[in-house]
Task: inverse folding
């Protein structure tokens, strides 16, 4: 299951949530049928399966987008309520340093039994996969021997690597209320070839900061920082790397768990634009993280 091109945000604005969950239910049921057929074919009882989730290239912005997180959590609730006994192990591979933070945001929707089936690896995952999965079944690019009939080691005949959904395909975008019409929204202007910091004052330990923003036209770059001050200087430590986002069709959102009090900041950067200033509408929410949010 490659996450690099998994565009959950695009799904949210292109397909009704109920239709996504209906299709996933169909896939889960098909998995059960395939295990039943394999049991008859081999004479062995096959009731569980293993998942391999490749998060290589899955950016922090993708992972913490509020709409994507909400959709992912709906999928987890569906699976947890109906199919948890079908999971043997889930291998998360090519895990970035921030992945535990992202996983913590979904832990409230998972049982302790399910969480114990998760195994996290960086780049050193192949030996672990081969200890559980036959080399002739495991695709070659994951350390096994399996290839497509044409020799493709990525086995694209059985693995859908997906792709980003173009914003012009967001069929549900007109059902989304413009952010500027909501209560509690602030507007700032970011001049051309310039940037603006929006400071966020966190007064307690283990707080969840959530934000949403949009621009009336074109894109804007955004990052998340922690402000450091001493007697002679002010610096900003990067927590979420800058990334240009298309937020003029539907709002963009994000989440970050702040482990300590302090001043944090969203940076809206328009430095790449030679001609146009940008208006940015945004709203920010700070709340106490739950115990499940912060446990490691």
Result:
């Amino acid at each position: 299951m490659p996450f690099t091109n998994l565009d959950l945000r695009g799904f949210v604005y292109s397909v009704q949530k109920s239709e996504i969950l209906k299709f996933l239910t169909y896939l889960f049921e098909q998995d059960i049928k395939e295990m039943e057929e394999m049991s008859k074919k081999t004479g062995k009882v096959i009731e569980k399966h293993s998942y391999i989730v490749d998060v290589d290239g899955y950016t922090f912005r993708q992972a913490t987008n509020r709409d994507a997180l909400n959709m992912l959590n709906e999928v987890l609730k569906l699976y947890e309520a109906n199919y948890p006994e079908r999971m043997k192990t889930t291998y998360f591979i090519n895990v970035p340093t921030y992945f535990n933070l992202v996983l913590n945001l979904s832990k409230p929707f998972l049982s302790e039994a399910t969480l114990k089936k998760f195994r996290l690896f960086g780049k050193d995952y192949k030996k672990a996969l081969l200890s559980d999965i036959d080399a002739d079944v495991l695709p070659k690019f994951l350390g096994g021997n399996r290839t497509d009939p044409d020799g493709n080691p990525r086995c694209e005949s059985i693995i859908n690597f997906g792709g980003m959904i173009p914003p012009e395909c967001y069929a549900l975008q007109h059902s989304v209320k413009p952010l500027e019409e909501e209560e509690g929204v602030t507007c700032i202007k970011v001049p051309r070839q310039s940037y603006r910091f929006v400071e966020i004052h966190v007064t307690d330990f283990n707080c969840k900061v959530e934000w949403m923003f949009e621009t009336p036209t074109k894109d804007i770059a955004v990052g998340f920082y922690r402000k450091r001050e001493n007697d002679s200087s002010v610096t900003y430590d990067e927590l979420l790397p800058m990334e240009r986002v298309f937020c003029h069709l539907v709002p963009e959102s994000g989440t970050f768990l702040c482990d300590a009090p302090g001043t944090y900041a969203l940076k809206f950067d328009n430095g790449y634009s030679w001609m146009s200033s940008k208006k940015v509408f945004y709203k920010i929410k700070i709340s106490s993280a739950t115990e499940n949010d912060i446990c490691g």
In short: The two ends are 24 Å apart (CA to CA). DSSP finds eight helices and eleven strands in the chain.
